[in-house]
Amino acid sequence: MDLIFRIRRSDASARLSDLRTKSGTLTLPEFFPVYNPNKPVVTPREMREMGIRALITNSYIIYKSKELREEALERGIHSLLDFDGVVMTDSGAYQIYRYGDVEITNREILGFQRDIGSDIGSILDVPMSSQISRRDAERGVERTIRNAEEWAQLRDQLKGTLWVGTPQGSIYSDLVEYSSRRIRELDFDYNGVGSLKVALERYDFALQAKHFLLVRSILKAGKPFHFWGIGHPSTFAFFAALGADSFDSAAYALYAEQGRYMTPHGTLMLDEMKEFPCTCPVCSKYTPEEVRELPKDERNHLIAKHNLYVSLAEIRKVREAIRGNWLWELVQERARFHPRLYAALNYALKNWGDLLEIREPFSKPSGLLYSGPETFFRPEVVRARERVRRVRSRRHFRRVLYGRVPLGLKYTYPFGQTVHPDEEDVEEEPTDEEIVSSILSYQFHPSLADLGMGARIRRSGKTGMPREAILDGNSLGFIRPSDGMLVPTMEGADIIRSRIPLPKSRVAVRREFEETVARGTTVFVKFVEWADPLIRPRSEVIVVSGDDELLATGRAILSGEEYREFDENHPFVLIRRHKLPRRA
Questions:
Q1: Does residue 496 lie in a domain region?
Q2: The pTM is what?
Q3: Three-class SS of residue 316?
Q4: Are residues 526 and 560 in the same domain?
């Protein structure tokens, strides 16, 4: 089936999105627990009853068993597993990592995944550890690309399943870059990133972050990213904030066999516990002592279920953090519980800030909470610190994260919404002219500063907060209470457009779509002639014709640097106001 992947909300580099599969639509980010039909610790039916909507199983293991293979081909993978959610299948690539090879060809396993009805399938790539030799890595990349090219030749025969393409190369950046470019060219439905074995087992999260971000910087942004093998709930928020849309792991079951009890903050040992710090159905019914006294299989089953409940709760929390725009706060909280996760967060912020900034929303309706020194390097903080320098003002206030801030930005995100323990409220009030001049300069362009001269502000009768900017009796726009940003009227947008250089704050639509957009239709990717590359999610944008004639105003969903990498029917700008009336 054709990929339908739609971004609904975003925070950090995470996307709250819908992925359509033939078994239903998934809301990403999502966690796919691994189910091994030869070791059914928690059954798929139990998973579904727990609220799990997607799982992954190994198609090669099923293929190797004559009984399972015949049943899967006859009844389909969903019936075999007794699971009516989304089923993703691995190709047997993990067996290549563990045992060196598999007894099946790439062509055969691709066809088998299609025939059993996998919703999401994968090619036979070659997973790698962080300790693999250069020569072995080269051979693995060659085999991965050869199998990816074979998939591309069979593409028309494999429709109905979404296919994951995963670059390889281990720690060798040039191999990863080459592999990623080739996978990009082949245009898979789903981007895969392989976690580096050994390094992952040693909690080298910084190396995982480096590998993920390198691959992400090359593959198309308009497809979901699956990070193979990332399974501890304490890491979900971090890797989602870097741009991962889904994860999979068997850690919930493997940890249970070792008596390891997962929490969002790390892992506890069952043998050392007096109380369960959780209220899931397992922990509400049993004490640690009671679980320890159970037969091994039953004990493993219960701890595995708990581990799944924790994983499910954490991925839901990640999605809610994206909705509420407090994902970075969650990441910073989680990173405090393991030194190497904290080191990885600092590494990513300091070394990959430019890439992370591309998806960082321009403004947020929630406050920005100082959570430690790494807050200085958060993408929206760095951007605000750089952008505020262009705003001219005679009066300022100071903020720890941003330095000198024009007084006119007292109520504007992030300056007015940042909470720092060493700061007090700013008592001094900006004038109407300072507010309008500073907001226009910061949000759109410094050339608009003089528009503040003579402008006045209409304020809320209840709170006294700025609500509307007025110039010469005309409304420039409304000042949004949540972030202090200007939402231009059509009159205001036309004034702004006429005063700022191309292509600033603009999205230009193709001639054949001009009237459609002028009547209020969402701007889809295929409508766009060009766009300001500095547009970010949640930017207020001015929609124009190719000749720079005002058509509408709206809010961007995607980044101006990435929109071309999305499907042509993906929304880019949601229209607020438009030039012509809607059709009856």
A1: no
A2: 0.95
A3: helix
A4: yes
Question: In Å, what is the CA distance from 107 to each residue of 114, 121, 155, 463, 572?
Answer: 11, 13, 11, 67, 37
Residue that finishes a domain, picked among 467, 488, 509: 488
Q: What are the two backbone dihedrals, phi and then psi, of residue 22, each rounded to the nearest 5 degrees?
A: -70, -15
Q: What is the pLDDT of residue 104?
A: 85
pLDDT value, residue 127: 87
The phi and psi torsions of 10 (rounded to 5 degrees) equal -150, 155
Domain boundary among 488, 517, 542: 488
pLDDT digits (tens, 9 = 90+) for 232-268: 999 999 999 999 999 999 999 999 999 999 999 999 9
Report CA 507 to chain centroid distance, whole Å: 24
Q: How many domains does the chain have?
A: 3
Return the CA Rg of the chain. 26
Q: What's the confidence (pLDDT) of residue 103?
A: 77
483 is catalytic: no
| 3-state secondary structure at position 133 | coil
CA distance 474 to 479: 14
Domain that holds residue 531: 501-578
Catalytic choice (90, 119, 125, 248): 90
- In the predicted model, residues of the chain with pLDDT beneath 70 are 1, 93-101
- Phi, psi for residue 414 in degrees, rounded to 5: -95, 0
Any idea what the CATH number is for the domain that residue 377 is in? Answer: 3.90.1020.10
Cα atoms in the Cβ-side hemisphere of radius 13 Å centred on 238:
31
CB 413 within 8 A of CB 485: yes
Q: Are residues 463 and 342 in the same domain?
A: no
**DSSP tag of 582:** P
Length of the chain as a residue count: 584
